[in-house]
Amino acid sequence: MHRSSAVPDATVAAKARELTANSRSELDRIRAIAQFVQRCNTSQSTSVSVGETVIALTRLAQVLARAYGDCKDKANLMRAMLKSVNITAYPIVIFLGDEPCKKKSGLHHASSTTA
């Protein structure tokens, strides 16, 4: 989840601007985008971790069009959408427990945060 993976295309930027059109503050913009991203596939959220794809990201336009992605895809979409409205966000990678993760990447969960 590096910088170039969160570069918004025109579709992602347009959706972010649409979602935040009536926002009065930066916090309102963050909430609007977070609520949208959280609603993406909440009933079917799963980790997509097969072989090398465990750390591969789905293209932003595809995540947006399908309203589907695993935690790292949704975190990346949120970062890109926030970037579209001039808010910097950073990826967070979460490792749980003391034992080494059985997944190839060691990644348990991903999210985003703003400074």
Tell me what the structure shows.
The chain is α+β, with helices and mostly antiparallel strands and 115 residues long. The protein has a single domain, classed as C8orf32 fold (Roll), CATH 3.10.620. It has four helices and two strands; from the N terminus they run ααααββ. Strands 1-2 form a two-stranded antiparallel ribbon. The chain is globular, with a radius of gyration of 14 Å. The mean pLDDT is 77.
The averaged pLDDT comes out at 77
CATH architecture: Roll
Summarize the amount of helix as a percent range.
Answer: 25-40%
For the largest beta-sheet, the strand count, sense and barrel status come to: 2 strands, antiparallel
Number of strand elements = 2
Q: In the CATH hierarchy, what is the class?
A: Alpha Beta
Q: Give the number of helices.
A: 4
Q: What is the domain tally?
A: 1
H-E string: HHHHEE
Calculate Rg over CA atoms.
14 Å
**Main sheet strand line-up:** 1-2
- Write the CATH fold name: C8orf32 fold
Show unreliable segments. none
Taken as a percent bin, the fraction of beta residues is: 5-15%
The oligomeric status of these chains comes to single chain
